[in-house]
Design brief:
mainly alpha, 5 helices
Amino acid sequence: MKKTKRSRMARKTRKAKVTKKAAPQRTAAGKARAEGLRLFKVAGRPTEEQFVLVYGENGPKMTWDQRAAAGIPAEKFQVALAKAGR
């Protein structure tokens, strides 16, 4: 008996429905990285030059906590960038 393409595809879709993906492990480093990326997006995805304009020479090397301690959190980065660009 000849197997048709339809029956092969039906078998593949059944297998795909049965298998489940394992949940990714969340490490402390992964959580910290995710938070840093979230704050980077909140800040408007700034370039290194923009970090230097707002925070000074060490701006690109600083963490978001250090930048917030300097007085400019991620939420207010675009406002500070507009003032620095004048």
